Amino acid sequence: MNFLQKIKNSIYNPAFYANLKEQKLSFSFRYFFSLAGLLALIVAFVFGVEMSPLFSGENLKKLVDYYPKELNIEVKGGTISTNVSEPYIIKGPTGFSSREESRSENIIVIDTKNDFTVEAFRAHATEVLLGKNFVVVSKGRGQFEFSDLSGIPDFNLNQERLIGFARVIGEHHLALSLLLFVILFFSFFGLFTLKLFILLFLAVLILCVVKLKKVLLNYKQCYQIALHAVTIPLIFETFFIVSGVGALSLFIFILIALIVVSVNIKSSGVVLS
């Protein structure tokens, strides 16, 4: 049985579910890991194609050019200082904002001379406020995130140094793109395989479903069914992730799997024992 046929049967094929008793548990685990690998490959490819151009020499040059030539940021002993008059403002394009509802006027404001206050942060109308030992990032709708930078190591940041970084990254664009793909693949493969723990609970719910259908199953067989029943919710979750919506909620994930079980396990005297 080829893999695509297994996917089709796992979505809907009552005879396939009824005959799982003929298969070892390892058969279903191999299917689940193969499905998780395929879906992780799809997500890694989509995100990799989107993110890889960020490492190109052309895009890196654009980013570096945006950094002010006169600005040097120094971190020493957990304290940030600059060589420019403050507050120093880096403006964004007209109507710039990473979130439409905030419409911040500035990208970054650097003010290492004054302590943080909510009023000052709002008055700066910025996405990011860099202070003497902290950074504040706007989250929109009046919300923000405050991070303490007093523990970061000493360094200097200026355009010349950024040009050097950009040159090195640009020269290794292909290798970094491949590394990004590998990281994305294993990250999402791990995310999908973590569902195995959810299946421990799902198998209990399947026991309840099949009991109502008067089909005799033990917990091991219910877990094996769960390994196939999550095909649709995993595919849906993959689609939502690459669409930018995010992962399915646990409730929706389990509900879809239970619907799959319900339509595939018939109450016609089928006994998996």
Structure description:
The protein starts with a helix and ends in a 9-residue tail after the last helix. β6 and β7 form a beta hairpin. The strands form 2 sheets. A 5-stranded mixed β-sheet has the order 3-4-5-6-7, covered by helices on one side. A 3-stranded antiparallel β-sheet has the order 2-1-8. It is 54% helix and 14% strand. 22% of the residues are buried. It is an alpha+beta fold and 273 residues long. It folds into 2 domains: 3-50 and 176-264, no CATH class; 69-157, no CATH class. α8 packs across α11 (250-264). It is built from 11 helices and 8 strands.
Structural descriptors:
273 residues, 2 domains, 11 helices, 3-stranded antiparallel β-sheet, alpha+beta, elongated
Mean pLDDT rating: 84
Q: What is the CA-atom radius of gyration, in angstroms?
A: 27 Å
Task: Give the strand line-up of the largest sheet.
Answer: 3-4-5-6-7
Count of DSSP H/I helices: 11
Strand content: 5-15%
Major β-sheet profile: 5 strands, mixed
Number of extended strands: 8
**Tally of discrete structural domains:** 2
* Termini gap: 23 Å
Please estimate the helix content. 40-55%
Provide the structure class: alpha+beta
Shape: elongated
